[in-house]
């Protein structure tokens, strides 16, 4: 299995969260509060026509993140 950042996923790919960058502690806390904790499975559902935002399915709900925000999330890609 490969590791990447969330922004590197393609539509339909599944991944598992490995870590969230600690560069911005306030943003990290927000992501953790939204359920993006290490070990969480997610899937990239779709990307807006201009590339931002991207829609994820996490724990049964939809979450939209900008690509710049998604690069803070390290994932393990599940084929």
Question: What labels would you give this structure?
Answer:
79 residues; alpha+beta; six-stranded antiparallel beta sheet; 2 helices
Commentary on this structure:
- With 79 residues, the protein is of the alpha+beta class.
- Helix content is 16%, strand content 43%.
- The radius of gyration is 11 Å and the shape is globular.
- The termini are close together.
The number of distinct helices, counting runs of at least 4 residues, comes to 2
Overall spatial form: globular
How are strands sequenced across the largest beta sheet? 1-6-2-3-4-5
> How many beta-strand segments?
6
Largest sheet: 6 strands, antiparallel
Strand content: 35-45%
Percent in helix: 10-25%
N-to-C SSE series? Answer: EEHEEEHE
Instruction: Tell me the radius of gyration.
Output: 11 Å
Low-confidence stretches: none
Mean pLDDT reading: 90
How far do the termini sit from each other? Answer: 8 Å
> Helix- and strand-based class?
alpha+beta
